[in-house]
């Protein structure tokens, strides 16, 4: 259970660890570098406690650590509303209520164009501002958004102002092109 054992384990299992990190990153929309480095860090810290000290047990431990890191990353991403696909429909439903125009074929075309415009504009915002705006349109207050994203209310306010300015610029830029 020496440092040499740890280095030998890493050398022997490096391709497998990298492959596992890439696979889990794809499945969980995460970053494989974060999964890999987090797993190696945890392995190094817990190395003396892994028992029995055989490669199969250590490999199983590494797998469990990486799976848990991927799950944690996915939960955090979902909590911060980085999953825009689910929230986009809510935004569009509020902006274009389908009930009163559902039978009009022209409405379907206008709705689809609006969906694309909103989607493109939101996707062009930086990650933090995108998350703030997606939560804001759901009716949450600035303090609630701050608590959800783990930031200060002033940071949320600044993010809202920046995002609105950028969305306005994007909308005006699209109007100039047409």
Structure in words:
Keywords: DNA-binding, Sigma factor, Transcription, Transcription regulation. InterPro entries: RNA_pol_sigma-70-like, RNA_pol_sigma-70_dom, RNA_pol_sigma70_r4_t2, RNA_pol_sigma_r3/r4-like, WH-like_DNA-bd_sf. This protein is mostly helical and 178 residues long. It has 2 domains: 3-79, no CATH class; 84-177, Arc Repressor Mutant, subunit A (Orthogonal Bundle). The chain has helices at 3-28, 32-46, 55-79, 84-95, 105-123, 127-136, 142-149, 153-177. The chain starts with a helix and ends with a helix.
Considering the chains and any ligands shown, give keywords for the structure.
Arc Repressor Mutant, subunit A; 178 residues; single chain; 0% strand; mainly alpha
